[in-house]
Amino acid sequence: MKRRALGLAAALLISANAAASEEQSDPLVSVVQHYVERVVAQQETSGKIVVDVVPALTNAGLCQMPCPFMPAGQRMRGNITVGVKCINEQGHDMPRYYRARIGIEDDYIVAARDLMPGTLLSAADIDTQHGDITRLTTSNAPLARAADVVGQRLTRRVVAGAPLQTTMVKAPLVITRNSRVTVIARQAGFTITAQGTAMDEAPSEGQLRVRMDSKKIIMARATAPGEAVAIH
């Protein structure tokens, strides 16, 4: 058993030394690393950026005047491919390609418990976690601040521990469909108030249609529960 453990430790040490030697033998790794870091630094991204470049599996020979480039159509996060234009020993332009990963370590908001659609979120409904947000299985960026979540209305069911995204929350409604609405119209220094029925739902500052008691349909902007200002 002791001999087997020593053999395993030796194998791991050899593997680690081989990986380090492989990275040192490929000077383009540092070229690609610095290039990606410069490109990412130009993006408006919060959090800590972590860039890892995978060394080439084989030595492709001399690379004169290396010029890294980013193939079109890639998002600057997660797994990417980076090209390097090289002039080889024969003077030919021979591009090489490297795999890299861009991680973004940041805080993000998750559900503290199972939440149902329509829930008005409070501080007790959420937790804050920290990690690489590019590894989250989300189609949109997760919300990062409690202030972006508390007081908002949930639009779908969210299980405990799942990240909250921008598409999952909306401002709470102040006017619901078919509810009575007081509409205020301001013109030339005077104010007119009339009653109507909401044809749409709306959050604060949201627009909606209102069917006035006179049967006329107008556009209005919600300002408070049951109140709106006519849009001229």
From TrEMBL:
Compartments where located: Periplasm
Primary site of residence: periplasm
Give the Gene3D superfamilies listed for this entry: 2.30.30.760, Antifreeze-like/N-acetylneuraminic acid synthase C-terminal domain
A GO cellular component term found in this entry reads: periplasmic space
| Residue ranges constituting the SAF domain according to the UniProt record | 106-170
Q: Which domain of life is it from?
A: Bacteria
Renumbered to this chain, the signal peptide range is 1-20
Mind listing the UniProt keywords for this protein, alphabetically? Bacterial flagellum biogenesis, Cell projection, Cilium, Flagellum, Periplasm, Signal
Q: Name one GO biological process term.
A: bacterial-type flagellum assembly
Asked if Ribonucleoprotein is a keyword of the record, the answer is no
Cited InterPro entries: Flagellar_FlgA, SAF, SAF_FlgA
Briefly state the protein's biological role. Answer: Involved in the assembly process of the P-ring formation. It may associate with FlgF on the rod constituting a structure essential for the P-ring assembly or may act as a modulator protein for the P-ring assembly.
Family according to the record: Belongs to the FlgA family.
Spell out the protein name for this chain.
Answer: Flagella basal body P-ring formation protein FlgA
Q: Which organism is it from?
A: Zymobacter palmae
Q: What is the lineage of its organism?
A: Bacteria, Pseudomonadati, Pseudomonadota, Gammaproteobacteria, Oceanospirillales
